[in-house]
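To illustrate the input format used throughout this study, we show a single complete record. The first block contains the structure-token representation of the backbone; no residue identities are included at this stage. The design step must infer an amino acid for every position from geometry alone.
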């Protein structure tokens, strides 16, 4: 599915970032340890990991996925630089541009009134599903649709107003034809063509998993979801995400992948 990722070391002031989780402030030493475990997991899987330094100016900057969407294509990888809906995060895009300019064969940047955060973008096959919400607007989706079409991708907008930070907060891929999601997405027409696993009430956070082709990574600490995955033939690896959960962050949020 991918062979390269970019991550950024958490800022010491991560607890000053955006969150509605109501779970308290992250323990920074534990946060750093969990981030190292995240990096180690990919390295052991043979994936090249680029670790960027912390940027204290932007408390949320560890969540690098929101700043760009990588678009693989026949001749390489393009990068679509976003404009975060959260105004306090918009400077993060300049920070990530410097890191990917030598890794992408083409860079496209959001313009005008377009807003988008990468946590709202789910790729399944040759189709991008884009959440339209408080962080990503219709104009942002329109610009991304045009950029993705250039490389042979279809885009499906998924508008929602249920208060989640991002589409992938409670929806992600388990394999190329199966989605795991919270009950609030179960009847959405946009996802009618996929197999679906609905996480138990109270374990919605566990719906953010990371499909890696021959591996599946899931957050630790959700026993009913773990049982659901096992019953459906999935054997994920589990990792502790407790401190990132406090900041509304999940497994997919912490990396740019291509």
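Output of the design step:
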């Amino acid at each position: 599915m991918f062979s390269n990722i970019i991550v950024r070391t958490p800022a010491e002031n991560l607890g000053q970032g955006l969150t509605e989780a109501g779970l308290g402030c992250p323990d920074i030493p534990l946060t750093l340890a969990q981030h190292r475990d995240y990096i180690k997991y990919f390295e052991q899987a043979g994936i090249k990991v680029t670790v960027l330094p912390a940027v204290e100016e932007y408390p949320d900057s560890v969540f690098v996925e929101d700043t760009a969407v990588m678009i693989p294509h026949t001749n390489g990888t393009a990068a679509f630089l976003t404009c975060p809906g959260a105004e306090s995060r918009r400077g993060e895009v300049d920070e990530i541009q410097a890191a990917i300019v030598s890794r992408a064969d083409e860079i496209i940047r959001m313009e005008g009134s377009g807003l988008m955060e990468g946590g709202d973008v789910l790729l399944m096959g040759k189709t991008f599903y884009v959440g339209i919400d408080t962080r990503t607007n219709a104009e942002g989706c329109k610009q991304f649709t045009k950029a993705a079409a250039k490389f042979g991708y279809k885009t499906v907008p998924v508008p929602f107003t249920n208060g989640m930070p991002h589409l992938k907060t409670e929806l992600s891929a388990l394999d190329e034809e199966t989605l795991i999601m919270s009950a609030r997405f179960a009847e959405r027409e946009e996802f009618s063509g996929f197999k679906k696993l609905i996480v138990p009430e109270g374990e919605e956070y566990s719906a953010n998993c990371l499909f890696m082709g021959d591996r599946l990574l899931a957050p630790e600490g959700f026993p009913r979801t773990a049982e659901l995955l096992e019953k459906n033939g999935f054997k994920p690896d589990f990792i502790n995400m407790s401190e990132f959960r406090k900041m509304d962050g999940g497994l997919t949020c912490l990396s740019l992948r291509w």
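Structural context for interpreting the output: The first strand starts at residue 4 and ends at 8. The chain has a mean pLDDT of 97.
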